[in-house]
């Protein structure tokens, strides 16, 4: 029910209101509630709260802080509680505060009720076992207690031991020792020096037929007593040992077998704190829904450590499942054996529960019915490892209230999530720190001394995949003369996956991946083989469809199949990726159509990129642009979204060798400029230039020199408000001169006009106005003679400014008006905005401030229409500067502030700082 409150102190402090867990992550809140719970029904003085929270050094107004924490506790338990009301749960008492709760609300009081019931009833064992099941760990586990309060929590622990020892005596008397063994083992681990408890554990072990384990347990506790306390075992412990030696312990066959089938822990298991907590949350469902069977699914890519994680967690919580733990490897992806059939699996599970072979039915349905009958009243932990699909698992699910089933699989068993309410946990590779720590533990401190960098490189080459790290560490331990640096070099230079060959199939990384690949449908296997031709760090459905020459809806189905098998991961809605080692494995698979598939993808990117650029800069056309596409034109938002989504793909594709991929770098220019991504702009052009040089592609070299000139020129211009970056402008000029040389060599006279215009822009940046005007005029003559309206419009922007710089302002404004008019006719909003902004500047020179402000308003609106953040920021700067020069500093500050915020959002720190300097000068 919604208003029901449950409180827990027999383990970590917990509180639940209805079905919702109360958030107790705040330390002081958790400690205050914990002390109230352990003292339930008795007052806690305010001074005790001070000691609990701050020890001997409470802060000023500490009592007020305690009162606030008490108020917060009340409202966590009763959210609608009126202000200053005490509520039902926490009330004032003479020295401080008191928790009022009953056994139905607090696990400690319910434990005491059941313990008392056990002492007074005829069926003491059942009541005491029910009391012991309430424990989830140490009393108040996780609380940081001052010495003065530790005894109170320890006293509750002693209550548990008293009930447990009485229950063990009952169980030994009636031949039910096996039912208490897991609980006794957990308690004995927590209190290894309690002789009465250790004596009971020894007797339980002997009574369940584990004579050798009982003898070993005695010697272990005897050694601890001598080494830690300096005493010999007392009479109770010695008597228990003597009974074991005399075989004087009733070893009657238990009423039912308690399986303990968990495989050994991986001794190098480390990290995975968040994942272990998620599994613990699975188990928490048993407390919230005691009548339900809870199912958890751990899925993930091959070799990611699913079995190790589940095994580690299962050992940690085995004591919470007193009726046993079953473990079954279903071999869903075994290279040498077929998956375990449901009938065979049920037979193995029933054998673990003590059913003789002669009593096993042959029909799968009857086996399932028998399994559910045998588990109907048991609190079991069942681990089903390496499941292939839902059909293999469904017959193996028990119907036992309080049972927990954990399933591991490479496949995402969504059918169980939908049909059976299973809770999924997708296991990713561990963090770099966790992977490094695991490898360090395997190799040992002596082996890695002085080789930290090589250790990091090994982790990187293994892609943090636990299986790959285990194989590499095994190889390193087998050959101690190899340095880690040598191993890192081998990983860096060897053919993909060769270093990860294991000594047997289950430790061979390539072989492990192949188990999943062989289970794919034909079309999924084909796409998996083609995917290495996709250059991006991730990929969407549309580009994947082009790569595979498949319909889009079919491609989505295949991508979902690859995702279900964990060969791919959907890293965000509509974008997929895969682990580096899985990509390397896919690349090793032969497919003669991979080069053709890659060319299809590159053609698609060029075609769509040209369409997107028409939306960003309608007047611009690039080298060898594809023919007019049949698809409808993109709008601005579509174009920006496409570039943003495929940016990594385009950058990676522009670095491919031998496919004239520099064209993909070229189409990124307007997007880079619009987003102010100057460093990425230059890096992409540099890589593409290197490819063009290596291929001897002069046309590509010319295009990339121009692109690099633009990156340096625009970046230099963006810093001009701080200090003109003459070095960058000089670099831009050098790139353009090289472009002119190559185009002249190629005889591309028509393209020289654009480069002359670019040279004019560069000379203008360093105030070489006569030279700039000369270059612009050469460009204008070529554009006009060739009938290029686009080139004419763009060049008039330059002549307009430079004519004014050399003294003819009116002629310059005429050029700018003409440039803007042509740009509007062409639909080139960006150029029209630049023309308006430049015209405003010249108007301001003539003292026509209001006209200038009006033209800047037009420019800002045009930049806003095309979402040109850099252009909008620059216009805000100009408006602020113009108003400041006109003696209107308050209005100027408004625009400078807007510009500063825009530059900060764009990551242009120097420009943002320049705006701050302007603002501080007012």
UniProtKB/TrEMBL annotation:
<dbReference type="InterPro" id="IPR016032">
    <property type="entry name" value="Sig_transdc_resp-reg_C-effctor"/>
</dbReference>
<keyword id="KW-0802">TPR repeat</keyword>
<feature type="repeat" description="TPR">
    <location>
        <begin position="753"/>
        <end position="786"/>
    </location>
</feature>
<keyword id="KW-0804">Transcription</keyword>
<dbReference type="InterPro" id="IPR051677">
    <property type="entry name" value="AfsR-DnrI-RedD_regulator"/>
</dbReference>
<dbReference type="InterPro" id="IPR027417">
    <property type="entry name" value="P-loop_NTPase"/>
</dbReference>
<protein>
    <submittedName>
        <fullName>BTAD domain-containing putative transcriptional regulator</fullName>
    </submittedName>
</protein>
<dbReference type="InterPro" id="IPR019734">
    <property type="entry name" value="TPR_rpt"/>
</dbReference>
<dbReference type="InterPro" id="IPR001867">
    <property type="entry name" value="OmpR/PhoB-type_DNA-bd"/>
</dbReference>
<keyword id="KW-0805">Transcription regulation</keyword>
<feature type="DNA-binding region" description="OmpR/PhoB-type">
    <location>
        <begin position="1"/>
        <end position="101"/>
    </location>
</feature>
<dbReference type="InterPro" id="IPR005158">
    <property type="entry name" value="BTAD"/>
</dbReference>
<comment type="similarity">
    <text>Belongs to the AfsR/DnrI/RedD regulatory family.</text>
</comment>
<dbReference type="Pfam" id="PF00486">
    <property type="entry name" value="Trans_reg_C"/>
</dbReference>
<dbReference type="InterPro" id="IPR011990">
    <property type="entry name" value="TPR-like_helical_dom_sf"/>
</dbReference>
<keyword id="KW-0238">DNA-binding</keyword>
<feature type="domain" description="OmpR/PhoB-type">
    <location>
        <begin position="1"/>
        <end position="101"/>
    </location>
</feature>
<dbReference type="Pfam" id="PF03704">
    <property type="entry name" value="BTAD"/>
</dbReference>
<dbReference type="InterPro" id="IPR036388">
    <property type="entry name" value="WH-like_DNA-bd_sf"/>
</dbReference>
